[in-house]
Amino acid sequence: MNKEVIIYHNPKCSKSRQALEIIKSKNIEPTIILYLIKKLSKNEIKNLLSKLGLTIRDILRTGEDEYKNNNLKNENLSDDKLIEFLVKFPKLLQRPIVVKNSKAVIGRPPENILNLL
Q1: Contact status, residue 47 vs residue 36, Cβ threshold 8 Å
Q2: Which of 9, 13, 14, 52 is catalytic?
């Protein structure tokens, strides 16, 4: 029995597309969350961090203009403040993130998700 697999997906991202292809190659039909369209809530982000076993800084894309323009590298910013920025600017989220049960991984490289499936 396949447990439900969820992918936080950006169809414009090649790594995200590759991860989705890997999932489907295992005959798994994942729930696809287009997080750029339906923004994540603070609670959803905290839940993802818990499943990933990472901090908010670990899942921020530091090369994005929103990261640089809002000086998010500032170490004095609290985790809650950084999560608020991620809610406001969802493209800051590392992608793809794949969730299965109580575990999650970032699909960079996409092969990272194989251990989860």
Answers
A1: no
A2: 13
CA 61/CA 41 separation, integer angstroms? 18
Q: Is 13 a catalytic residue?
A: yes
- pTM of the entire structure? 0.93
- pLDDT tens column, 48-60: 999 999 999 999 9
**Domain coordinates of the chain in residue numbers?**
5-115
Please answer whether residues 30 and 79 qualify as being in contact, where contact means their C-beta atoms are separated by less than 8 angstroms.
Answer: no
Tokens representing residue 59 in the block: 């899942």
CATH fold of 5-115, please? Glutaredoxin (3.40.30)
**CA–CA separation, 97 and 62 (whole Å):** 16
Cβ–Cβ under 8 Å, residues 92 and 65: no
Extract the runs of DSSP E, i.e. beta strands, from the chain: 5-8, 31-33, 97-100, 103-106
Q: How many CB atoms lie within 10 A of CB 1?
A: 2
